[in-house]
Amino acid sequence: LRETTAAESAPTPAQFRQAMLRHLQYTVGKSPQQASLFDWRMALSHTVRDYAVDPWFSATRRTWDEDRKRVYYLSMEFLIGRLLEDQAINLGLRDVMVQVLAEFGLSFDEVAEGEPDAALGNGGLGRLAACYLESMATMGCPAYGYGLRYEHGLFRQHFENGRQIETPENWLATDNPWDFTRPEAAYPVGFGGELHDHDGASIWSPRSKVLASAHDTPVVGYGGQWANTLRLWAAMPSADLFNLDRFNAGDFAAASEPEALARSLSRVLYPNDTTEGGKELRLSQEYFLTSASVQDILRRYLAAHDDLLKLPEFVAIQMNDTHPAIAGPELIRLLVDEHAVDFDTAVETATSVLGYTNHTLLPEALERWSVGLMRKVLPRHLQIIETLDTQFIALQGQAPNPVRLISNDQVSMGDLAFTTSHKVNGVSALHTELVSQELFPVHNELHPGRIVNITNGVTPRRWLKLANPSLAALITDTIGAGWESDLERLRELEPYAEDPAFRDAFGRSKRQAKEHFTGWLAAEHGIELPAEALYDAQVKRLHEYKRQLLNILWTIAHWQRIKRDPQANWVPRVKIFGGKAAPSYHMAKLIIQLINDVAEVVNNDPETRHLLRVVYPPNYGVSMAEKLIPAADLSEQISTAGMEASGTGNMKFALNGALTIGTLDGANVEIREHVGAENFFLFGLTTEQVGERRAQQGHSRAALEASQTLRDVLQAIAEGTFSPEDHHRYDGLLETMWNSDWFLVASDFEDYDRAQGEVADCYSDPEKWQRMAILNIARMGYFSSDRSIREYMSQIWDVESAL
Ligand code: 26M
Predict the structure, then answer these.
(1) Are the C-beta atoms of residues 210 and 241 closer than 8 Å to each other?
(2) pTM of the model
(3) Which residue, 181, 444, 520, 780, is most buried by CB atoms nearer than 10 A?
(4) The domain 500-524+533-784 belongs to what CATH superfamily?
(5) What's the gap in Å between 665 CA and the centre of ligand 1?
């Protein structure tokens, strides 16, 4: 086995070319003359993948040989995007690959554009898991990602008359070249059935069993010195799991239940980024992921050890939100029922192994499962949770109203995850404070020190080097290579903020990124944009708390002002929106329609179209973000304070030299501290003021009465200015604005307007703007996911780097 790093063993163009031609002929079965773009991409992907295998083998081998502790990251979502360029960069193959393709007359961008995004996630939580996988590999942290191999990822979005339409996503329709199928790694997962008492012990006889079958993708770290595995489970009906007893008893429908369940389990990703609750299939998916993963973890541990009580010395399991929180009961069940460990020892062992990351405080997003459904699907686990609940009540002594794992006939997965974890973490400083004080105050007093903060981060390989090659090249030219895996080195750029030549070069790189984005937008969506304008972007899932509504209402106000005084010295702006709404989230879908209706009117107004555009390219996802974020001048991070756990898009924008207009929410607080308050456009109520304002009767009406600007905006909407064919389209939305406004759009409007005025003033002084943008880039090193992972390794997982 080779132990050399990718950089040392980089192939020559001739070697790479030969390897690719071999794959074209023998893997794809085509000659260069017959090959389509698809064929070339397959040959290229297999060629790149080959170079991942050596570091992958050697990392796996060393982990076994050195008997290292491993991290297992359990997540229902991995929002990976494309892999070809990412893997090529990390293996040091990007340049040679581009060169060899060019020799065949092919443009790399054109070949790469054919790769479908692996969109196995909804948004921030899923993308964070993908950044963390890449950083764990870069940091030499022995780790596995465990997830589900959904046949259909997040739905595709398009607009009809401005309304969101969802269609199925189908990333596996063509070959997935990254996937190694592992039919030998398969585990039965049981569902339903009964409990029987046997000598005081509970025996679970599931009604159906489904096989979990593994598909592995190597995840190579930057520099190619380490690689981990992303293991995705596919549900498989299995001949021997077909229920023969029931079949022979004549109950044919019941006999094929396992097969029906199997066909649905890994079929599709649930498209909500908040729980809608109660769906049996979702609970079954969560258990399927968790059980298969925990079985695999124990199998791997027992292949090298025999004392299960030492599990915490060799295994750390991280639960990405509560979605895999059944891991506690499942691990306890396997230890007690299959390995004869006594209950209390099993609980202690499981708790020492497990960690839980909380990603949200929204009450509707905190998972609760009805006791009835739990009993039906997972009777043994419910029994274990009941025992844990009894123990947890006892721990609270004489408390009159103890916190319970089960209340109102529902299992609270957050409380369960807390009690079965040795560490619980929030994802930004503010969020962790709220997790301690608002969400888990009782747990926190019982277990001081269990809650820790790990502020989120993003991988600079994908979000700077890959997405923004012109800025990345400028950085390397200025401070040398190596910043990619030591992002604090960006600080060396600080003095260049005062260097006019560097500022010009930065301006040119921003211009190139804009051209790349607008070129794509024109080719893909037929939308032409002016290059000389302030690109102002808000891209993220549609949610009322994220306040896309505040942004579009301000856009209308801005349009009205331009129309009142068209000759004034306006800064031309392009308002860019992107993001999907959950299919059943009516208000979010109405906001999408409003944005598209406003775009229709504003973009066709000859008086203003040279000064204001509104664009909403459909189907925002990782690959669109890679083009859009580098092109942005202004990043909208405008959630109601206290509601966005962290945000990670905010980090990607600032790292690419966009300035932020934002509230004191989530990681915005820390971003502002790092880049400097003078380089950040702050507005809005604080978390504390949000609480106070909501308690004031009639706050929405009061705020509207204080803002002529906002009243004029609502008036225009009410008159049908943007929906001439349906004056009542936005009645519901307007009613909310006047009478409830939970998200405080009206309360924050005037201050947002003031901050947007500062943005425009600042942008008209390019020297000042560029200085601020450069200082943002230089001071964003802290937000590398490498730093986050280092903190998880030392504060939660107690695992050492193998490098
Ligand atoms: C739950 C049950 C059923 C179906 C879907 C879900 C579900 C899926 C995703 C619930 C929440 C989901 O994601 C929440 C999320 O993305 N949270 C975001 O996490 C980011 C990473 O920590 C933070 O930066 C964001 O602030 C936070 O909103």
Answers:
(1) yes
(2) 0.98
(3) 780
(4) Glycogen Phosphorylase B; (3.40.50.2000)
(5) 16
